[in-house]
Amino acid sequence: MQKFSYHTHTNFMGFDGRNTAEEMIQKAEEIGFEEIGISNHFIYHPNFKCNDDKMIFTDYNKFEKMVGAMVDNVRTASLKSKIKVFVGFEVDYFPSKQWCDVFEKIRKNIEIDYFIGSTHIMRNDEETDLHNFYHYFYGEHSLPDEVLQKYIGNYWKNIAEAIKSGYFDFIAHIDVYRIFKIFDHLIFDDEVNNLLDVFEKYKTPYELNTSGWTKNGVQHPDNNLLISLRDRGVPVVVNDDAHSIDMLGQHFDKAEELLSSLNYINRWKLEK
Ligand SMILES: [Zn+2]
Ligand SMILES: [Zn+2]
């Protein structure tokens, strides 16, 4: 059984996770983890409209301050830890130069151990109309199908571009929006096949994220993707995406069973 998770969240921003970094680390020790990575959200883009969402930043200076404070918080918590603690971020990637410049600046200014390439946004090509899947689902969700086809197509392309950027240690919950059944009638075979080609070329690791099983029984990624990625020689890592101490290591036994039933032996671990 895998004895670590690199995708976990804390309550440092006052929401999102339910526990402090200290509590997450302590619980990880209790359940026999050998190391843990804390990876709060890193969501910045000047074109976000939802200024009421405190997790999403449009102001660079505020954002850099928050990232620095989160890193300090985890580093301080790790001083008392008996296990290895890494500080990472679950980064919402965007391909535009304006976003990449900001990412590179922060990466230069603040010491961060690893980055998870994540996409929670569907959008237009210009990155001027951005929709977080969660907001869209719980809000009006009124975009017509032809727009959704384009915007979610860009979601898949965004993951491929994230891989090509070389910024990321691994890729999070590849097909995350499938937990929202309202998109099930849309087909993205071309985009998915293109993404698989990119994975095959770059061999960037990706996660089997066990939190979908906890939330509503949906597996990320689904078996088709798992098998396709296995056949292309792409390494996998199991993560709980824990937002509370109870979720740490949750369903890791089920993940092991699944991976062994698929004879998936190409596993990934952070080497630091
Ligand atoms: Zn996520
Ligand atoms: Zn997460």
Describe this structure in words.
The chain is of the alpha/beta class and 272 residues long. The chain has one domain: Metal-dependent hydrolases (TIM Barrel), CATH 3.20.20. 39% of the residues lie in helices and 16% in strands. The protein is built from nine helices and ten strands. It has helices spanning 21-30, 60-78, 97-109, 133-138, 145-165, 189-202, 211-215, 223-231, 252-261; strands at 4-5, 35-44, 56-57, 84-92, 114-118, 121-123, 130-132, 170-171, 206-209, 236-239. The strands form three sheets. Strands 1, 2, 3, 4, 5 and 8 form a six-stranded parallel β-sheet that branches. Strands 6-7 form a two-stranded antiparallel ribbon. Helix 5 runs parallel beside helix 6 (189-202). It is globular and about 50 Å long. The two termini are 21 Å apart. The structure holds zinc ion (2 copies). One zinc ion binds next to loops.
